[in-house]
TrEMBL record:
Enzyme class: lyase
Protein's UniProt name: 3-dehydroquinate synthase
Predominant location: cytoplasm
One function term, GO molecular function aspect: 3-dehydroquinate synthase activity
Keywords, in A-Z order: Amino-acid biosynthesis, Aromatic amino acid biosynthesis, Cobalt, Cytoplasm, Lyase, Metal-binding, NAD, Nucleotide-binding, Zinc
Annotated EC: 4.2.3.4
Localization: Cytoplasm
Keyword Protein biosynthesis: no
Top-level taxonomy: Bacteria, Bacillati, Bacillota, Bacilli, Bacillales
Length: 364
């Protein structure tokens, strides 16, 4: 088992990464100050529940907790006001009090939804992240919790840090292959923004990662979580450097929203967005190899790198105006300058973005 720390003063918390952690989850939860006298609520989804819910409930009950559970439909559509309200009802019916905690058992959808319920139930109670996807090495760390609005991704949310992240890598073995690739998109992103060697390592070990090789996964997840934890520890609420974690997301979030949440998985949409950002980087003076290298790295893990013709450029342009990085009349873009290095640009011209979107439709 490996342990990392998200260093945020009194809101600091550990990330535990290892095998067999689900069976002992009750002990971890207790060790991290979650009251045994108040009920807990586990929020999970319909695909995760049959594999892992009983193990978690047994472990929590053995440790002495009274636990209720709520199961939401799988996929992005559960990050909605409707499902949020249903989870609030579950929390009230389970009689959660201000010393209770909500546990998110699942991928980024469950983590973002359950975290937002925890952030707002009785004005905020504790929560625990128990990630079960590769993508969630990113989403479970850092405290961004949110649901979507039909017009824009993650529009209704909060910053609410978990008490701990308990990452049992054994759970990843049941992931469908499309979800494996989508999750690896954020791993490659962590290399592209901060660590060229790691980005190259992801490409060189793509086959092992796609085959869920234990050693490759353990290294990749540890490295990805460490990069994320380091950035969040410097800038918890995205007043500066944290924005770089958004590489590929301005275009990616617009694709997710206009296609109707679910057609593109988050990792797939940001993969296309990262190729677009690399193109912008080249337009602004980076070496032309940046675009080819980025595309090759993403293709190696089975991700899309071109924009389907049926998505209208103008619809994407207007969806981008709702992005949280559109501020004071400017589109803020994370632009790579080389593999492993990015800048935060406030002067990206709309016509350049439009051109990049048109070129993304011609990518092979
Ligand atoms: N908060 C953040 O910082 C942050 C960071 C990155 C992404 N996100 C968000 O995360 C979401 C995407 O997360 P995701 O890719 O984990 O999606 P997800 O939670 O929908 O999980 C992907 C799919 O895999 C299934 N699944 C999950 N774990 C499984 C397992 N172990 N075995 C079998 N099936 C399993 C789920 O039911 C779902 O169908 C997006 O909404 C994105 O916006 C948030
Ligand atoms: O943690 C962050 O900060 C990120 O930007 C991580 C992203 O991978 C993630 O998708 C996040 O939810 C996007 O943030 P948003 O503020 O653009 O909604
Ligand atoms: Zn993301």
């Amino acid at each position: 088992m490996r342990e990392l720390k998200v260093d945020l003063g009194e809101r600091s918390y550990p990330i535990y990464i290892g095998s067999g952690l689900l069976e002992t989850a009750g002990d971890y939860v207790q060790k991290h100050g979650i009251s045994i006298k108040s009920p807990l609520l586990v929020i999970t989804d319909e695909k995760v529940a049959p594999h892992y819910l009983d193990t978690l409930l047994t472990s929590l009950e053995t440790a002495g907790y009274a636990v209720a559970s709520a199961v939401v439909p799988s996929g992005e559509t559960s990050k909605s006001l409707k499902v949020y309200e249903e989870m609030m009802t579950s929390a009230i019916e389970a009689k959660l009090d201000r010393s209770s905690a909500i546990l998110a058992l699942g991928g980024g959808v469950v983590g973002d939804l359950a975290g937002f319920v925890a952030a707002t139930y009785m004005r905020g109670i504790k929560f625990v992240q128990i990630p079960t996807t590769i993508l969630a090495h990113d989403s479970s760390v850092g405290g961004k919790v949110a649901i979507n609005h039909p017009l824009a991704k993650n529009m209704i949310g909060a910053f609410h840090q978990p008490e701990l992240v308990l990452y049992d890598v054994d759970t990843l073995l049941t992931l469908p292959s499309r979800e494996v690739s989508a999750g690896l998109a954020e791993m490659v992103k962590h290399g592209l923004i901060r660590d060229a060697d790691f980005a190259h390592w992801c490409e060189e070990n793509a086959d092992q990662l796609l085959a869920l090789d234990k050693d490759a996964l353990a290294y990749g997840l540890l490295k990805g979580c460490a990069i994320k934890a380091e950035i969040v520890s410097q800038d918890e609420q995205e007043n500066g450097i944290r924005a770089i974690l958004n590489l590929g997301h301005t275009i990616g979030h617009a694709i997710e929203a206009i296609a109707g949440y679910g057609e593109f998985l988050h990792g797939e949409a940001i993969s296309i967005g990262m190729v677009g950002s690399a193109k912008l980087g080249v337009m602004r003076g980076a070496d032309a190899s940046l675009h080819e290298d980025t595309k090759r790295m993403l293709k190696a893990i089975g991700l899309p790198t071109s924009l389907p013709e049926h998505l209208s450029t103008e619809d994407i342009m207007s969806a981008m105006m709702h992005d949280k990085k559109f501020r004071e009349g400017h589109m803020i873009f994370i632009i790579p300058t080389a593999i492993g290095e990015v800048t935060i640009a406030k002067d990206v011209r709309a016509e350049d973005v439009r051109l990049v979107l048109e070129e993304l439709k011609k990518e092979v």
